[in-house]
Amino acid sequence: MTMNTMPRKRSRAxxxxxxxxxxxxxxxxxxxxxxxSHRGRKRGGAPKIAVVATVALAVALAAGGTAYAVLGGDFFxxxxxxxxxxxxxxxxxxxxxxxxxxxxxGSIDEDALSDExxxxxxxxxRAVEARGYTLLVESVLVDDLGCGVATFTLxxxxxxxxxxxxxxxxDVVFDEDSDLRLLRTAFGDGTSAxxxxxxxxxxxxxxxVRGTIYFNAWNGADSVASGIKWVLxxxxxxxxxxxxxxxxTIKSREFKTADGVRAMVSPIAMVIDDESVMEAHDDxxxxxxxxxxxxxxxxxxxxxxxxxxxxxxxxxIFGSCLRGEDGVNLETVYRPTQLLVPEIIxxxxxFGDLCHTDGQNEAWQAxxxxxx
Length: 372
Prior knowledge:
Layout: H1 12-21, H2 28-37, H3 51-63, H4 74-81, E1 89-92, E2 101-104, H5 115-119, E3 122-130, E4 133-142, E5 147-155, E6 180-187, E7 193-199, E8 208-217, H6 221-225, E9 228-234, E10 238-240, E11 253-256, E12 262-265, E13 270-273, H7 274-280, E14 290-299, E15 304-309, E16 314-315, E17 317-325, E18 328-336, E19 345-355, E20 361-370
Antiparallel strand pairs: 1-2, 3-4, 4-5, 5-8, 6-9, 7-8, 9-10, 11-12, 11-20, 12-13, 13-18, 14-15, 14-19, 15-16, 17-18, 19-20
Helix pairs in contact: 1-3, 2-3
């Protein structure tokens, strides 16, 4: 459904009925109305935080009968780790490079979604409007590794210019003629996120984009705990939502190699602890002495899930980055396209190179096993 205009007035009964029709939790209507009653205009003529738009968009989605009106529950996971309307396997080429790159989107096993995981999804309801755009960030899930996932709807009755020729299939890259340059994630402590934004091709239109943001904080979980906000980056200004402070966090599971190198795995992210690599090998060189070429996880049933494979140019991730505060506590973060179940992972497998102080690289292979 494309939403261009909204009714001027809806009764309390109408709005509550709409929320009931979309199978939201029993107190969802009260939560949204409570947020709306505590918002105002920012000082200094800043763009309005569109709490009314938060309610209006949710009501409009519910009234339209679309499954995207479900703000939490199982559907959040289908939306975040399905094929996003782009097909299960995506391929693309890069100018000047022979061959294809590929990314395989995940699939969801409803039986593998634990009650604890589903209960960790929170309704954020953060919205802002500027220059004809209305951004609504709906549901959010974060882990204890400083990583998160958020679903959103971005609308503009005058059109939204996304150029599918850039980036991997599904990546939100705004056309060079667009006045909107980026949709970003930031935190209450003033830092920005490393993030990837993917739109749903089947659920989006020329005037309304529905998608998912995958992000991690550069400084880890403390930044996420300071609150999350979402930014519309225009050519000459940034317009930002109110901060959302998560109340719930999903836990990760620790894995270790025989020499003490650590990896942490949550349902939405994987982190390799570079500091523990340096502790295990005292003759390494540079701030990033470990280069991983191939990363995968093995399940209890023997299934092997490839995360990255440089030789095959397979990148089943929503981005990755090296992070660390002031060059210490370095970690490599991956955000897989497959929703993981850490409890049934038997091991994490990594292949790559160690960079030594003598300038020589040493082939490196490691198996990370559950630490507990």
